[in-house]
């Protein structure tokens, strides 16, 4: 029982740390518009991660796709890519396959999901602590 409680406590502490990091990331967002060169932080090869006004994006080009069009395409219809899109509220995946063989993709996750997920364990820990405290008080009362 003690070992399970310790693991639960450590997981709750880890979730609080992640939760706080997410809250800190919100004002530190990088802007994908209006700058030259790549934005975000490089994870490996061409894969980058960025925190933007619309959420957290994982992408493989200099800037994430933001649903506003692809910059640099000419009006020649032969240049337009094949597009695959998966959209779920707060989760977006866009995959562009160009005739030249290059591929652009962007996976965007709303910040709401990780914030909610990282707050569940600490909330459960606090509830468990509160119930344990109430039981301890009830056992100590003379009634």
Could you please describe the fold and organization of this structure?
The protein is 37% helix and 25% strand. With 143 residues, the protein is an alpha+beta fold. The chain has one domain. It has a six-stranded antiparallel β-sheet with strand order 1-2-3-6-5-4, with no helix packed on it. Helix 1 (2-25) packs across helix 2. The longest helix has 29 residues, at 112-140. The two termini are 29 Å apart.
Strand content: 25-35%
- Anisotropy-based shape: elongated
Secondary structure class reads alpha+beta
- Helical segment count: 2
- Please tell me how large the radius of gyration is: 23 Å
Overall average pLDDT: 80
Q: End-to-end span in angstroms? A: 29 Å
Topology:
Blueprint: H1 2-25, E1 41-44, E2 47-52, E3 55-59, E4 82-88, E5 91-97, E6 103-109, H2 112-140
Concise overview:
With 143 residues, the chain is an alpha+beta fold. The chain has helices at residues 2-25, 112-140; strands spanning 41-44, 47-52, 55-59, 82-88, 91-97, 103-109.
Key words describing this protein structure:
6 strands; single chain; alpha+beta; 143 residues
């Amino acid at each position: 029982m003690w070992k399970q409680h310790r693991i639960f406590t450590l997981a709750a502490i880890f979730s609080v740390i992640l939760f706080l990091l997410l809250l800190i990331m919100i004002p530190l967002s990088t802007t994908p518009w209006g700058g030259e060169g790549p934005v975000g932080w490089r994870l490996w090869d061409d894969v980058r991660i960025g925190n933007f006004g619309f959420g957290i994006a994982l992408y493989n080009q200099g800037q994430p796709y933001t649903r506003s069009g692809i910059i640099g395409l000419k009006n020649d219809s032969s240049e337009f890519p094949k597009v695959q899109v998966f959209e779920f509220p707060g989760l977006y995946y866009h995959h562009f396959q160009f005739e030249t063989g290059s591929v652009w993709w962007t996976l965007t996750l709303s910040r709401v999901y990780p914030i909610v997920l990282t707050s569940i364990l600490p909330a459960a820990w606090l509830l468990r602590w509160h119930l344990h405290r109430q039981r301890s008080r009830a056992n100590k009362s003379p009634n």
